[in-house]
Amino acid sequence: MDNDYLNKNYRKLLEDLHQMMMDNGKLMVSDVQMLNPLVLAYVGDSVYDTFVRTLLVSGGYGQVKKLHKMSIEFVKAKAQADTLEKITELLTPEEQDVARRGRNTKSATIPKNADISDYRYATGFEALIGFLFLTGQNDRLMEILGRVIDIKSETEK
After folding, report:
1. Would you call 31 a catalytic residue per the annotation?
2. Cα dihedral sign for 109, 115, 120, 126?
3. What does the pLDDT look like over 18-68, one tens digit per residue?
4. What is the CA radius of gyration of the chain?
5. Does residue 48 contact residue 129 with C-beta atoms inside 8 Å?
6. Is 128 in contact with 92 (CB distance < 8 Å)?
7. CATH number assigned to the domain with residue range 26-155, chosen from the 4 options 1.10.1520.10, 1.10.10.60, 2.60.40.10, 1.10.10.10
């Protein structure tokens, strides 16, 4: 990380972050659409991981090893790719575009435990989650995340 940049711009970054928090984290859709889809996926990965961990902890599971194994079933590339495929018809054209851009963006990272197709679809899913989060579309985000739970429940039957 470029510490000089951070140090020089710390006050401005802090003010911008504070304003964003005051606006409920909502950024302008047009600004978010200009972000690289991998940046959206970066944020979406964190949001989705936090959602899954919170869901599992609130389910009463207390052993960290068990929590970790359960969370992997949600966050692995194959699971995210399958989820995106199953929710695509529920997405608005704008959301489909965000997921498509995320899916089609070339990453310098090569997946270790997933095939490239699943990895790209997972990136599209994470980009969608990041987009919804950054634009403050919390109701829609929760609707999509609720559908993830439904899909997971259906596959375990």
Report:
1. no
2. negative
3. 666 666 666 778 888 888 999 999 999 999 999 999 888 887 777 888 888
4. 17
5. yes
6. no
7. 1.10.1520.10
* Options 2, 4, 45, 49, the catalytic residue: 45
- pTM of the shown model: 0.82
Which phi-psi region, left, alpha or beta, contains residue 99 (left: φ > 0; alpha: ψ -120 to 50)?
alpha
CB 131 within 8 A of CB 39: no
Helical residues (DSSP H) of the chain, grouped into ranges: 3-22, 29-33, 37-58, 64-75, 77-87, 93-104, 116-134, 138-155
**Spatial separation of the C-alpha atoms in residues 65 and 63, rounded to whole Å:** 6
